[in-house]
Amino acid sequence: MATTTVGRTPTRERAAGKPGPGGRARSPYPYWFYLPAAVIYGLLFIIPTITAFYFSLTRWTIFDSQFIGLDNYVTFFREPALVSGLTHTLIYAAVTSAAKVVLGMLLAILLTSQIVGRGFLRSVVFFPVLVSTIGVGLTFTVLMNPEQGLINDALAVVGIDGPAWLTDPRYALLSVALVDVWKGVGLATVIYIAGIVSIPSEYFEAAKVDGAGAWDTFRRIILPLARPATVTVILLSLIGGLRSFDLIWAMTRGGPGFTSDVIASVIYKQYQAGFYGLSTAGNVVLFLVVTAIVFPLSRLLNRKEVDL
Amino acid sequence: MSAVPHRKPRPNYLLSAVAIGASLVVFVVPFVFILLTAIKDRRQAAEFDFSWPQQMQFVQNFIDVVQARDYLLIIAYINSTILTVASVAIMAVTSAMVAYVLQRRRSRWNGFVNFLVLSGLIIPPAVVPTIWVLQRLGLFRTMPGLILVEVAFGLAFCVLLFQAFIASIPRELDEAAVIDGAGPVRLFFRVIFPLLRPVIVTVVLVQSVFVYNDFVNPLYFLPGEQNATVQLTLYNFNSQFNTQYNLLFMDILLITIPPLIMFLAFNRQIVAGMTAGAVKG
Questions:
Q1: A125: which chain B residues are within 8 Å (Cβ-Cβ)?
Q2: H or E segment at B85?
Q3: What confidence tens digit (pLDDT) does each residue in B61-113 have?
Q4: What is the ipTM of this complex?
Q5: How far is CA B222 from CA B131, B146, B231, B273, in A?
Q6: pLDDT, tens digit, for every residue of B25-47?
Q7: Which residues in A211-231 are b (16+ Cβ under 10 Å) and which e?
Q8: A166: which chain B residues are within 8 Å (Cβ-Cβ)?
Q9: Residues of B with CB below 8 A from A41's CB?
Q10: Could you tell me which chain A residue has the CA closest to the CA of B118?
Q11: Would you call B249 and A139 a contact, using CB atoms and an 8 Å cutoff?
Q12: Dihedral sign from CA coordinates of B201, B205, B208, B210
């Protein structure tokens, strides 16, 4: 794909330069400026993405591949441990995105209102975004320890018997999702803050004059006018959530059992086990899931932005 | 930054107190916990308590972590620095070139290039086929290979940031430079590129954080003890230090310091980069 782009560039450039007005023979914006990026992107992103479709149909040792049809996909969808990876991925992405949208918006409204220590609060909420995911994961693994962990100690103080978090098959995935939200809500918040701040203050003043309460202001002004921010937050957290790997790997490695395995961790496990074809089939499944959800959704959510 | 929707005569003190209290518990306590555990002795650290260290072992733990596995952490810091600096530099220059032509020159390629950029943001990279390509190029398990991978995966985001900014630079500037006899290369690198400084700062900061914190790509494309980046040391130490939580948390603490410094120095630019597109969509 990239090679065709590159290969046809010179002809195209001459063709574009000739009919130009005046004596300008060459465009000041030459196509070969695409070249360095196109080579890197083409070789290491586009080619792997396309060849993945072929290699997912093979038994593969990197050096040697043998075509086996859809066997890898059959394995993938027959093996309960692998299929559950797919559902966990969807649950994880949906839960984290929904939580980030709601909490991010609430925090942003709080942090654009008249409260003391706004700068401090914004910094504190945002900082986890910049911290190593693995570091956060290991820290929370300790904090979520069922017997000794700080979280259950704190819950015990107020009389709540905390769950076993990461070691309970029912809660493991949601516990990781909770930490994901803790780490990522700051990004959603600053996106919403940027969106809310860009709403002209006349709207708020007019609403006030008309006697609108806090709820009406939220419902009729902030919610519709911060829509671009909502779109950004939903898309970003869905893309991140669907391919999420590091946090899950740092905290549970897919366990207990396979109860917190997602597609990305299945891909890694199959890769480690040497099943490259199966791993790549997992990758193709992830590709299809992401594109089937995110592309239509982004079309739907921001129709105006199609021509950038 | 200062436009406030809810214009109330005075701040809501009760709400402020609740908010600050909650933020301390939810967001600050985990970091204090990291710090406290990192300076405890081995026995107390294993209790996982939020308590003051009975024995301050900051220096000892620091030395132990740095010396572990033949100074692996030092090597990892060097590796991470090389990786971050090289990939971010390449990313910034090549994506600025793409964004510049893409924004300035209307052609039938634009739709296609925009599509590729969008795809780069959305599509999850295919791991093993990337290894296959790297293997073919002789770049698998090498630092240059990993650098190029980081560049490939980061390009799309950078192009978007640059594109929006370049749209705000008047074309008259290009025309003036062309009339003065500047060729495309000089026009771009001497006239346009310096004007991109604010967005270059943003791109460099945001991508540095991403690349520095990246765990997945080094895990796949640069395996091996001696090649470890700092994120991988965390992962390796986790198994080794299973009973030495003070050292594990010292490692976490040391790894958190570079982003903390970046954050304290450039909070505004980082936030600007990460929220780009929130207003426009």
A1: 23, 27
A2: helix B58-104
A3: 999 888 888 888 999 999 999 999 999 999 999 999 999 999 999 888 899 99
A4: 0.89
A5: 10, 7, 12, 28
A6: 999 999 999 999 999 888 888 88
A7: ebeeeebbeebbeeebebbbb
A8: none
A9: 116, 120, 152, 155
A10: A295
A11: yes
A12: negative
pLDDT at A3: 36
Of A115, A249, A267, the CB nearest to B19: A115
Give the pLDDT score at A28: 86
CA distance A83 to A89: 10
Min Cα–Cα distance to chain A from B63, Å: 20
Tell me the C-alpha distance between B101 and B107, whole Å. 10
Tell me the HSE value of A95 on the side-chain side, using a 13 A CA sphere.
18
The whole-angstrom separation of Cα B36 and Cα B28 is 12
Lowest mean pLDDT among A78-82, A95-99, B80-84, B197-201: A78-82
Cβ neighbours of A185 in B, within 8 Å: none
Greatest C-alpha distance within chain B: 74
Q: What is the dihedral of CA B102, B105, B107, B110, to 10 degrees?
A: 10
Residue in B with minimal Cα distance to A63: B132
Among residues B133, B191, B196, which one has the least CA distance to residue B159? B196
Mutate to test the interface with A, among B13, B127, B150 (most CBs of A within 10 A): B127
Is residue A145 within 8 angstroms of chain B, CB to CB? yes
Chain A residues whose CB is inside 8 A of the B260 CB are 127, 130
Facing residues of A67 across strands? A58
Whole-prediction pTM? 0.88
Cβ contact, residue pair A271, B47, below 8 Å: no
Number of H helices, E strands in chain B: 14, 0
Find which of A18-22, A284-288, B65-69 is predicted with most confidence, using mean pLDDT.
A284-288
pLDDT tens per residue, range A195-234: 898 888 888 888 888 888 888 888 888 888 888 889 889 9
Give residue A308's pLDDT: 33
Rounded to 10°, the helix A172-197/A227-242 angle is 150
Q: Would you state the pLDDT for residue B257?
A: 92
- Asked if residue B187 lies in contact with residue B178, where contact means CB atoms within 8 angstroms, the answer is yes
